[in-house]
Design a protein that fits this description.
The complex is a heterodimer of chains A (306) and B (175).
Chain A: H1 2-17, H2 26-37, H3 42-70, E1 87-92, H4 96-116, E2 118-126, E3 132-141, E4 146-152, E5 158-164, E6 169-173, E7 178-181, H5 200-208, E8 216-220, E9 223-232, E10 238-245, E11 251-258, E12 263-271, H6 275-280, E13 290-291
Parallel strand pairs in A: 7-13
Antiparallel strand pairs in A: 1-8, 2-3, 2-12, 3-4, 4-5, 5-6, 6-7, 8-9, 9-10, 10-11, 11-12
Helix pairs in contact in A: 3-4, 4-5
Chain B: H1 2-15, H2 25-46, H3 48-63, H4 74-102, H5 117-124, H6 128-138, H7 144-151, H8 155-173
Classes of the chains: A alpha+beta (306), B mainly alpha (175).
Chain lengths: 306, 175
């Protein structure tokens, strides 16, 4: 299986690399540089500023409202049958203008949120029978450089957490009331998660690359201000549906479906930047927890990144 | 206020003036020796459409840096610069694409037909570090220690990114 996978990856990499363009000569680079030097950069930068400010104001207000309505965190309950998203489609159809327009708005909103909000995302792994078999929760503070990756217990509380900061990475094992520094991990200046659709940059890539397209409008979990932004079908055997708030343009749910029917349902909360929410991405070790030099012998918690 | 500061910082960084570029015969030799490898590496990171831009930015940045003349391992320095520019590109590409959209040149940003969309989709599911490690492993056949030296990161980090990248690709390739 490993050999097969290696062969597959090698073929994939080879196909991509074989599409490489001709390398420009150094004289060509110099020529381009001289051309660029004659073009002021300021208009591009000013455009960025003028784009961002209105979106910040709109997004911040709406995100607070969104966060308030859904702040119970999706997996605060217990595992069991996945209830699924209650969806009411109110229309369908796609056309290029609408796709481009929404892509624009979504990317702008996500870029703004990247600077300001604390991203909270909860992912439920649902087997083909509809049972939640695992759940993880992540808080990412890109501005502060902090992140926490939690494996959730059946009750919805964290069983284990990897806590990243600019100085260190520690693992907190709540059941054993112990914690230890994680060797070999550097601080997470730019925390990145495993699933592209679960990351700010991943969402940006998916939306801006055109893998997603507007297919319909809908309600999710009673929130009227949402619409379907896309279904990515470029991946063999799987699909991704991303739901984006009409009010904020920020993703609120991504549903990845594998060919066997299993699903990975990720819910996003874009939390306003305040002391309370910043602290979510930088949890302290609870008092009374014992520091260890490494993982405890015997039972070792499943890595939240696993 | 925080966002405004961030935006201003971004603008300031964008506008940071380059040192005048001075190219000598040694630079010509170094660049011509590694140009093909750099463009392939960049292609593995950001795709063929944007590889030239990334390499251009990276090389010009290196050659105009005061540190350049003192760099011993120029190949690694160039690779790291390409990586950094690719990561920077990923952060800003959406804004660039937006501008292209607004000027009705969106179609120019589409994927070239010679690369299947699913190939790009699979690679773009990886983080930038995972892409770099995967490309260096499967294209250049470097071992983790060599990649560690090339990229200036620890060997453990290389192994971790490689494992995660492989795991991610496994999910995509063998769903």
């Amino acid at each position: 299986m490993t050999d097969t996978l290696d062969t597959q990856i090698r073929a994939l990499v080879t196909e991509l690399i074989n599409s490489a363009p001709q390398a420009p000569s150094l004289s060509e680079l110099e020529r381009r540089e001289n051309q660029v030097a004659g073009v002021p950069l300021l208009p591009r930068a000013q455009g960025r500023l003028s784009l961002r400010r209105p979106v910040i104001l709109a997004a911040l207000g709406a995100v607070v409202a969104l966060g308030a309505t859904s702040a119970g965190l999706t997996v605060a309950g217990s595992f069991g049958a996945h209830k699924g998203n209650t969806t009411t489609r109110t229309g369908s159809g796609s056309h290029p203008e609408q796709t481009a327009f929404n892509r624009h708005k979504v990317v702008s909103a996500v870029l703004t949120a990247d600077q300001d909000e604390i991203l909270s995302e909860t992912t439920e792994f649902v087997d083909p029978g509809g049972q939640i078999v695992n759940a993880k929760r992540v808080f990412v503070d890109n501005t502060g450089g902090n992140a926490v990756y939690e494996t959730l217990s059946a009750s919805g509380s964290p069983a284990d957490a990897l806590v990243f900061s600019s100085e260190s990475v520690i693992d907190i094992y709540y059941a054993k009331q112990v914690w230890w520094p994680v060797q070999g991990r550097s601080g997470a200046r730019s925390p990145s998660l495993q699933d592209p659709e679960s990351t700010i940059s991943g969402v940006q890539s998916l939306v801006s690359s055109g893998q997603l397209k507007v297919v319909s409008r809908a309600e999710i979990n009673g929130q009227a201000a949402t619409e379907v932004v896309g279904e990515a079908d470029g991946l063999p055997g799987s699909s991704l549906t991303l739901w984006v708030s009409q009010a904020t343009n920020l993703p609120i749910q991504a549903i990845g479906t594998q060919s066997d029917g299993s699903q990975q349902v990720t819910s996003y909360l874009w939390l306003a930047r305040n002391d309370q929410n910043v602290a979510l991405a930088a949890p302290a070790v609870p008092s009374g927890f014992m520091e260890l030099s490494g993982p405890p012998a015997g039972e070792v918690p499943t890595s939240p990144l696993g | 206020v925080h966002s405004l500061k961030s935006a201003i910082r971004t603008v300031t960084q964008t506008q940071a003036p380059r040192h005048p570029m001075s190219v000598d015969a040694d630079d010509e030799e170094v660049y011509s020796k590694h140009a093909d490898d750099l463009i392939r590496f960049a292609t593995g990171l950001v795709g063929p459409s944007n590889a030239s831009d990334v390499v251009q930015e990276a090389v010009l940045s290196c050659l105009s840096s005061p540190k350049w003349t003192h760099v011993i391992d120029k190949r690694s320095y160039l690779y790291r610069s390409v990586y950094n520019k690719a990561a920077e590109f990923q952060r800003t590409s959406n804004r660039r694409r937006l501008r292209e959209q607004l000027t009705a040149r969106w179609e120019l940003m589409e994927t070239p037909p010679e690369v299947r969309p699913e190939v790009l989709a699979a690679v773009f599911r990886l983080s930038m570090k995972q892409r770099a490690v995967i490309v260096l492993t499967y294209w250049e056949d470097l071992d983790p220690r060599s990649i560690s030296r090339r990229m200036g990161i620890s060997e453990g980090s290389v192994k971790r990114h490689l494992a995660r990248g492989r795991s991610r690709l496994k999910e995509v390739l063998n769903p």
